[in-house]
Structures are given as C-alpha cells and as structure tokens.
Amino acid sequence: MFVITADQVASRREADRAGPLIAHLAERHGDQLLLPVDQTAGDEVQLVTTSAEAALAIVLDATRTGRWSVGLGVGDIRTPLPDATRKATGTAFIAAREAVGAAKRADGRFALRAAPIASGITVADVEPLVRLLVLLRERRTDPGWEVVDLMHDGRLQKEAAAILDVSAAAVSARLRAALWRAEAEATPALVRLLRELDAEATHAASG
Description:
It comes from Agromyces humatus. This is DNA-binding protein. It is a single chain. The chain has a five-stranded mixed β-sheet. Helix 5 crosses helix 6. It folds into two domains: about 1-140 and about 180-205, no CATH class; about 140-175. The chain is α+β, with helices and mostly antiparallel strands. It contains eight helices and five strands. A hairpin with a 4-residue loop joins strand 2 and strand 3 (about 45-50).
C-alpha cells in the first residue's frame, strides 16, 4: 500500500492551499484511491492507494508547484478500512509521517520511507531516482509545461502547435528543453521499482 502525505510550505505566512490541492488530486486520481482525499492535521493532505502508478503520479502532481513537502510511505494498512483516510492506521501511515518530515529538509521537498524490509529492494534504491525526476520537473519552464501538459493529454505535436499557435519546430524544441522524453521513459521504470518495494514491504509485514 502507498500513503502520500503532503504538508504545505510556509503555511503560517500563506493562505491555506489544502482545498485546491484536494480538489485537483481527487479529480485526477480519485478512482485510484482506497478512500477519499483527506485533510488531516492543519494544512496536511493525505491519500491512500494500492497503485504504484497512481502513487508516483500523485507525488509528481503534488510537488509540481514547490508549495508542498511530499512524503510517500510504503507498507501495510490496518483493515477493515475506516470511512476516512485520517482515521486509518498501519505501517504505511507511519512511513508517510516519517517521509513528510524528511521531505521538508530534502532537495525537491520529497522523501520516501517504507516499513522495515529484510532483503531485496530498499528505499535507498528508489528514493534518489524519484527525487531526480522531481528535480528535473522543477527546472521546466512555463512554456515547457504548456507543451508537456498537452502531450500528457494525448495530443500530437502538430495538434499542440495549432493549439499554442506556434510552429511544429517550436513545439519540438520546447519538448527537448523540458526533457519530456526523459520523464516519459523514466516513469515506467520508477513505477516498477515502487511496485517491487511495496511487494517487499508487504512480504516483510506478513512474514
């Protein structure tokens, strides 16, 4: 299981951004969540999913603006599930709590933690690679994001050029500068690593 906990940066100086983030994540990932997105202590947002693909996508969405410290916890969740995420417990929640604390001091404001694992793939194998992807995306410009978002929506490059009223060559140049292909190629590999980490944590918990 995967638990994502996001804590707003500089929350004492800025308006509460939890509501907009909850609405955004619920719209994009709601069908992949075990329980609805929840606001927990103060300005924290928490989600639970069984999907490694959804977990990575949520991390990338939540870290995009730089306004959230994001912790990803991997482990088990106590059943039966309650009616709200904030009421749930388990090693994945403990790991997510440790991760979000570490994320506040980490490059990219992301950290990964997992339930104790006896052997196999570890947090140290996965966390730096996810962080590299987060940092890559941090360097992306607004024009780069315009094109990348259209690609993620399934548009062709010529369609993106027409929508943005730029040349096809300009779209291609923006995608290269945005390192879009590197992200697209890295994402499936990171999903596989997270899936393996989850399997190891589940095996350790059951054994």
